[in-house]
Each structure stands twice: as C-alpha cells, then as structure tokens.
Amino acid sequence: MRILVTGGAGFIGSHLVEYLLAQGHEVLALDNYFTGSKDNLLHLRENPRLEIIRHDVVNPIMLEVEQIYNLACPASPLHYQYNPVKTIKTNIMGTLHMLGLAKRVKARILQASTSEVYGDPTVHPQTEEYWGNVNCIGIRSCYDEGKRAAEALMMDYHRQNGVQVRIARIFNTYGPRMAINDGRVISNFIVQALTGEDITVYGQGQQTRSFCYISDLVEGLVRLMNCDIFEGPVNLGNPEEYTILELAQKTLELTGSSSRLIFQPLPQDDPKQRCPDISRAKRLLNWQPTVPLTTGLQETIHYFGEKLRQLGKLPAA
Ligand code: NAD
Ligand code: UDP
After folding, report:
1. How many domains does the structure of the chain reveal?
2. How far apart are CA 26 and CA 212, in angstroms?
C-alpha cells in the first residue's frame, strides 16, 4: 500500500515509518520539522519506498494514498505551549485537510488522539466512554481541545461522508528518538540523570502516569488502522501506573546516577492521575503492551547515552 504518515520525522512517526517500510509498504513521511528531525529518518533514506515531504498540514496537499496516519502535532507540553495558536491550527486545520484528502482518495485515516482528551480525569482508569474533564480555557487547551475537535471532525466526516476513520487515544509513550530537549518527563529525567543534573520533579511527584514503550504503541497503531471493526476511539497505552516520584527513583537506579531530586512547582492543570483501561484494544485488536518499564527505560537510557556522547555532552565510552 501507499501510506502517508504526517509527523513522520517525529518520535512516534519515525518508528511507524520504519515499521511500515519493513512491512513492504511505500511510505510518504510528511513533516514541517517543528519538533521532528531529519536525523530520525536518516537510517531509512536509502530505501526507495520512502519519500520524505516537507510540508505543513495547516496547508492542504494533494497526494494519492490508501492509508493516512495523522500524527502531525507537537506532543510535549513545552512545545505545544510554545505557539498555542499554531498548535490548535495544526490540530483543527491539519485534521480537516487530511480528512479532505482521505475523502477525495477514499483512504482510511487514523488520527493520533491522546489521553489528554480526558483532561484531569475524575474516572479512573479511563475508559473510552468517559467524556473527560478538560479546562477549555487553560494553557493545555490548545492541545486538549484541539485533539477533541480533531476527534469530532473525524466522527463527522465518518457520519456525513462515510470516510473510514480510526481514532487512537494514545497514553504517555516513550523510547529512543525522543528529542533531548523534548521536555517530557522520561527524556528530562534520563538526560538529567546521565549528565548529573538535578532531577526536576514537578509538584510532590505524587501525580501518576502509565508509560508505554514505543514498539508496543506502533504495533497497536497498525493493528487499529487495519482492524475492520469500528467502534469509536480506542485507548492505546500501558496500564501499569507509576507516580512521577517512583519514575524518578527508577531512573536514578537504572542509570546509577547520583543526581539530586529537586521539587519544582506543578504546572497548571497537570492531570493528577492517568491510566488507560485497555479492554477495548484487547478485545478488538488482540493487543496489549509487552515491554516492561525497566526494559523500555534501559533501551531509552542507552539511546540517550549514545546521543549525549555524539553531542560531546558526555565523555566517550
Ligand atoms: P513529536 O513532537 O516527536 O512528533 C510530532 C511531529 O509532527 C514532529 O515531527 C513535528 O515536526 C511534526 N509537526 C508538528 N506540527 C506540524 C505541522 N503543522 N505540519 C507538519 N508536521 C508537523 O511527538 P510524538 O510523541 O511523536 O507525537 C506524535 C503524535 O502522537 C502527536 O499527534 C501527538 O499528539 C500524539 N500523541 C503522542 C503521545 C506520546 O506520549 N508520545 C501521547 C498522546 C498522543
Ligand atoms: N514532569 C516532571 N518533571 C519534568 C517533566 C514532567 O515532574 O521534568 C511531570 C509533569 O508535571 C507530569 C508528568 O511528569 O505530571 C508527565 O509529564 P509529561 O510532560 O511527560 O506529559 P503529560 O502527561 O503531562 O502530557
């Protein structure tokens, strides 16, 4: 198949592109390089089935494809709050343009939605039926409400135009190729631990998250895209839940670092607890994560170690 991956030079996108190429597909990786990097696709550039396109999804584009994975959007709070108007434009106009394309060429389209549509959840763990608790005027709303609007657009194109849509509600995912300056918790903690800087725990570190390793997530995305039953959004994430303090301690343990923990103010509207109910994904896709946090963290620590050495921020091994 010819498959378009928007956000293809990003963290999740580049792993997905690699997976689809390995399956023998032709892949169009589209990106504006805001948070993604050409480096993430460097090892694939000799593959004749890969085409890399510099494009911003806020503008329409004409392509001929059979499937579209719409991942284009900064995912880290640090980056999506940098230019919030652009974030909401990317989510709404980008999704609208990709849906228009899907409608025209009769492609199936998968939207990368997020656990953030549940906001600061009052239901725990979160099932797909839960409507969420989002502050629609807060500093996270450019992302949360942008993604909620994207879901609404997907459902309306499905009902009104018969477009085949899939919606993945992705929970915190981590692994190699996260950017060093990404700002999300796992990359921050690992880089801080490896370089001996203080580990920045926000609040008291009692908030929880559930961390899914990248290979598990990519497998879930591809299964969801190719599942012929559509029942609405599907949570994809690892249901093992940790406090941020536990994550900090685990990172110190696995890196053998002597960095200190420091406590900084909790960002506004930071969700207190988050954990997916993945019953739907298990039933429809026969999918569940297989990589334990320790293994995934070890892989990610190895990646950041190499990267920091290449950049001269750590001495050569
Ligand atoms: P990322 O920031 O590494 O990747 C996003 C990619 O989209 C980058 O390559 C960026 O340059 C590109 N992009 C941003 N705006 C664009 C635009 N207007 N036009 C074209 N390209 C644009 O983040 P990621 O973690 O790989 O996230 C990928 C997708 O998955 C995002 O849609 C994100 O919201 C979603 N998601 C990720 C997580 C997670 O934990 N990683 C959780 C929930 C949802
Ligand atoms: N966090 C932290 N220190 C950091 C970065 C993040 O304590 O250096 C916390 C953050 O406040 C949140 C959790 O870790 O409670 C996950 O943050 P992240 O930005 O990775 O993703 P989110 O789930 O909030 O979108």
Report:
1. 2
2. 27
**Would you write out the chain's pLDDT as a tens digit for each of its 317 residues?**
999 999 999 999 999 999 999 999 999 999 999 999 999 999 999 999 999 999 999 999 999 999 999 999 999 999 999 999 999 999 999 999 999 999 999 999 999 999 999 999 999 999 999 999 999 999 999 999 999 999 999 999 999 999 999 999 999 999 999 999 999 999 999 999 999 999 999 999 999 999 999 999 999 999 999 999 999 999 999 999 999 999 999 999 999 999 999 999 999 999 999 999 999 999 999 999 999 999 999 999 999 999 999 999 999 87
Predicted TM-score of the model (pTM):
0.98
CA–centroid distance, 82 to ligand 2, in Å, is 16
Residue nearest atom 1 in ligand 1 by C-alpha distance? 10
Q: Answer yes or no: is the C-beta of 41 below 6 A from any ligand 2 atom.
A: no
Helix axes 185-195 and 244-255, enclosed angle (nearest 10):
40
Say if strands 208-210 and 241-243 run parallel, antiparallel, or are unpaired: antiparallel
- Residue 46: CB partners within 8 Å, gap ≥ 6? none
Q: Is residue 317 part of a domain?
A: no
Range of the domain at 96: 2-174+212-236
**Co-location of 202 and 166 in the same domain:** no
